[in-house]
Amino acid sequence: MLLLKKATKEDIHKLTDISKEAFDTDVTVGNSEVGGPPGYDSYEWHRKMMEEDHLYSFWDEEKIAGGAVLFKEAGKLYVGRIFVCPEIFRRGYGRKLMKAIEELYLEVQTICLDTPVWNVRTNHFYKKCGYTETGRDEEAVYYCKKRW
User: Looking at the domain covering 2-146, what would its CATH class be?
Assistant: First the structure.
């Protein structure tokens, strides 16, 4: 059974490890070097996100399979980032995680996110999840999904 829930202190080390592993694979889809968004590999950053109620852990049975950083404001949800264990890439976990996020916030009309222009994997993924491109600049592509 898959479950998305607020992260706890006990989850932070595992979430940080998964985030680092997942974002470091971006060199295979367009990133010029190993790395990720600010704080992606930092225990302290993930702890801060947990303390501010933005960090979620995504469970598959008894094991953390990934995580998300979410921001809700004025009837809108912003997906700051999602990540899943690289060992389970391309098995539907990313789509299941996005579905769990959408189901957790049923009251939200609009869900927005952005992803790097160079990341062919995530740009394809968000379109596949029903998100529409709303803009882009030199660094990012912006997506939204309206639900009503």
Answer: alpha beta
